UniProtKB/TrEMBL annotation, chain A:
Residues 25-183 form the AAA+ ATPase domain. One of its GO terms (molecular function) is ATP binding. CDD domains: AAA. It holds the Pfam family AAA. This is AAA+ ATPase domain-containing protein.
Amino acid sequence: MRFEGSERYVATGDLTMAVNAAATLKRPLLIKGEPGTGKTLLAEEVATALGMPYYEWHIKSTSKAQQGLYEYDAVSRLRDSQLGDERVHDIANYIVPGPVWRAFESERPPVLLIDEIDKADIEFPNDLLRELDRMEFHVYETQQTVTARHRPVIIITSNNEKELPDAFLRRCFFHYISFPDRETMERIVQVHFPGLKGGLVREALELFFGLREMPGVKKRPSTSELLDWLKLLMAEDVDASVLRESNQEKTLPPLYGALLKNEQDTQLFERLMFMARRRRQG
Amino acid sequence: MLISFLQALREAGLRVSVTEFLTLLEALQARVTPGSVEDFYFLARACLVKDETRFDRFDQVFSAWFSGVEDIASALGADIPEEWLRRQAELSLSEAEKAELEGMGWDELMRTLRERLAEQSERHQGGNKWIGTAGRSPYGAWGYNPEGVRIGQDRSRHRRAVKVWDQRTFRNLDGDQALESRNLKLALRRLRRFAREGAGEELDLDDTIHATARRGGQLDLRMVPERHNAARVLVFFDIGGSMDDHVAICEALFSAARSEFKHLTYYYFHNCPYETLWRDATRRHADAVPTHEILHTFDPDYRVIIVGDAAMSPYEVKLPGAGVEHWNEESGETWLRRIVDTFPHLVWLNPEPSRFWDATQSNTMIREVIGERMYPLTPDGLEAAMQALNR
């Protein structure tokens, strides 16, 4: 059972190593990297490639660790008690299992994604230490202990908004997805758009990496944005020669809105291009 | 044999715990890797290093350990002397050269640095420990070990190294500094202004009881929005020149402020704010923002914190055209007064101890403009400043 990437996902050697280590030893794998480099997608791809059930838990700034395990719906119970519902006598009826619980109860070894763990409160990872370590937790209301049938492969993503506590980091494998270099990027594009002509890809990548290296960009376009842009280019049937022209003439590339997401960046780009044009003429 | 690797890592300042080391052994036992050195490198990195900013250090130790160097500490050029690098770059690169750096390619950059370092170490020979080591292996200190390149290195590593170097030359404040930022955070907490905004997500117990009672026991739930810290903060940092001595404390402050306030915007200036401020200290000219724009964008409810030592030539405050870096049409005082008039909630934090303040003329002038709202950058001064901002 080894993960080697898939038809839809290009994984570099170091990434597959980290995934396989985490899957073999059943320890959580923490993934960091620039936005849009496929952190979240990884878990889904691992699940598909290894044929495992997939559970996801998306973290928000208001998420509590408890919500991943279970929630006690006291309000429904109160309401039911007023309506004289029979269910009210069993508290277990009001315990709602969270994603972690569901993953623990899976018949086959599952993949559990904990997405953007850094969005939550600074104490959040600490509240999950025991659960990740022992793969079990206690339900206070019903006095039962839930233990994982199979230790899940846990993939955790972080955008580096907050520092994670050391105790938490010690229990994880760690991988940093660096931004793909040109060759890897070509492979990624190939995987997503197998029919795309080489000329168009070359010009598009030229433009894309040019944009990324533009000094002072607020939001640098990422892999996922490049793919969206290519999709648009294909839908609009833009020819490679148009892109080449844009590269040479220093004009805004067609459909640039897919790459530059922020007004200031667009303005900055126009200004830079204008300067480049003037320099050439002068 | 692996234990010596662990020791080497710890000596190089990577905090690798025994648990993590055991995980690595477990992984090796489980035959996760087919056995090539490259695989082992990736595996060891995934197990032992949990912070991508330490990868560089790990690479150095790894390559040194694998090529059988015995004394890793000295091969590394000891603890990377960031402080030293910073000053070194200051000393050995002129303003023009610093500007040139932007345009310089990687090879060019390395070459220039190497030359500078070589010159420098000859001049001070024997006098300085850092330079002695650096003379022997300047590359180690740059996080660029030629042997390290071989292992798992691709072009992206080079790019990262340039980035690291960039961080060392130009002192953009590092918000991740953990340095005693805790007591700063506690002081900043004083500026919390809680407000309930947005969708109701919390149960309002009192209101629910009232409403339920009014309806004769029929449950009537009332919700309220959660409380947020709604304080909005604008920080102006003085950067460069005499502020270099206060970089550490400013970084700590910056890091604390960033984690405390959701609405935090910051700009940099040099000595005194003039008609433009910078979003990014390294790209002063590309990223300059007109001060007028800032005055218009942010409403007067913003709390403004200016951080600077207020030490400059009096002309820089008083006269047009006296700015050290460019020609300013209007005097610093005019600009400062505009800022003070726009934002009634304003304080100036000064990293210099307050007993020296009267010795600088510019300091007195600035205090006249802002009206006795200058506080020393100590936990106590900060607390007083936050109280002043809350008024």
